[in-house]
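[Solved] Which block belongs to which protein?

Original post:
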Amino acid sequence: MDLTADQQAILNGSEGPEMALAMKTLVRYGESFDAQRLVPIKSAHLTGSFAISTYTGYYELLGKLVDAGVKVKVPTTINPRPGYDFSMQNRLIAFRKQKHHEDQLAKLGVTGNYSCVTYHTANVPEFGDILGWAESSAVVYANSVAGARTNRNSIMVDICMAVTGLTPEFGLLFDEHRKGNVLIKLDIEEMDDDAVGFIIGQSLVDKVPVLTHYPFDKVQLKNLGATMAAAGGVGLYHVVGVTPECPSLDAVFDKEPEQTITITQKDIDAIRWDRQKQGTAGMVVFGCPQMTLDEVKDVGRHFVGKTVTKRTLFHIVPSDYEELRKLPLHDQLVEAGVELFTHCPLAGLTVRLTPKNRHVITNSGKLHYYLEGGEYGNLDDVLRVAGVK
């Protein structure tokens, strides 16, 4: 790899052994993808927000950086909290060292937004920005909807990018890798963006899908991409006439698509949990990625003046939760029996000890993919199971 004089000096130890280790990690990472150089980033986003005992190497690196007085060199945000206070098992078993971990992140200068929807307010990328982000749902949104550029980076690598302000140049940072591979045609009667994302993710892996025009709003684009990223490793998608790099098919296809997939209403409906079994769900779960205030308003209106018959959880972007608390809707949701949280539902619900909670129903395609026993239903399904429709 062709390093600048300053980069080589850091690798050689000019800023201490901790920074040398971070630089060495990035160089090795880049070389594995044939990167020729490191380039500056505008911001970083970290995925390692959970204090899980098995991530020993990550915590060791954080500790060394903190002890050396290292600070992040670019604005850096962090993924959601894991739900330490959500259950006794989380407090006593899963995330016992969470407070210490958060203290370490703060000492590094990380912004404590604790959200996977970091692009919403805390870390808003602009078109063409080079980023060093982890968290698949944030990466795909930044690339696709904002038109910024970042690869699907991982835990450990992300903190090295944050403290150096650099990322290896490869993959989705180059124009040629942002072209479409697969054409997605929509032949549906009722849009279900999470189901569409799940089908696309399951149909292709590590490709760039291009969807024919549909007037998705930002919330739908968020959930569509998050599910694609979870189910199929998608880091970038285009929607004709909607996403910024795709004013037309010609703009993103240099040649004929490798494949054309048509998604029908029957395909979407097949993702849903069998209606006869839906009532056996122990919980109804919203918010993976976390809900924005607009989502809370849109979904929450169905609960106003009613009472849930099944335990119902909303997981909300922390800054938006603070805004919600100022609105009458907050108390109306609480009165309806909705439980409001700001942690990650996947982490919070991973350890479920009571048999009745073995199955939960969610309208999140991402949570459906990742959470064992996380069954999928569209919005009508989950509202009906919650007892408000």
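(Second protein starts here: sequence line, then its structure tokens.)
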Amino acid sequence: MSSISSALAQTSKEFASALSTKKSTGDNMDKEDFLMLLVTQFQYQDPLNPMEDQEFVAQMAQFSSLEQLMNLNTSMEGLTSATDNQQMLNATSYIGKQVTVSGNSIGKVTNTDGTTTISTFRYAFGETVREGVLTVMDGSGNTVYTENLGGKNANTTFEFNWNGLNDKGLPASDGTYTVSLAAYNSAGEAVVSDQVVDATVTSVVKNENVVYLGLDGGQSMELANVRQVTTPKTTTQTTTSSASGTETTSATTTEATEEKQTLTTSSDPISG
């Protein structure tokens, strides 16, 4: 009996050591670990009290179920990864398109030709506004620009096109800014608003399985927040030849469907 007790003690020590190694490396126990435990149990079981057939079959069924669940989990992880990759691939079709995205993050970028690109911010209120204030804040939460809204009708879409200047009339730095609304009705109560940003998609980025659209204002917005996609206006140059051989060039503007979404506060309300 002493040899059996010694063997069981040695087995327990070895298994505890293996389990400790798993914990130290941050790994979880897998089906190989459970199989090792089962084989070790058979090898060192008490010969005077062997495992019953029914108990053995039950344990084998449990290990079989465990293996199937592990395989299923691996398959689901692979499927999720494939879906994420497909979503990013599909998102690349948004590049060059104008999108309307839920949110209040706008961007300011100075282009190489000296022109400035600033995202368009639009908003609508669920009820009539007596007075309000629109504030533009930088990434550190500092107020850069403020504008009194005055009275605003309910269920009407308003557009804010910032000129990129701060309250002192000086050009603000390029970067991402947040537009904040504080609006009140005739009773002095805060009014709910729906807020979106219009911008052109320039890139697609995936971070921690979340797909983001890079916008021409320099900011990034989640793909899931896109509410409308349109094709912006494009200008093409056409060259023709006259009878005398001289060439004349004319500009033709092609305008695709570019109706901006009418905002409502019945869905995706954002407190102003």
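Accepted answer:
You had them paired correctly. Confirming on the second one: Residues 53-91 form the longest helix (39 residues).
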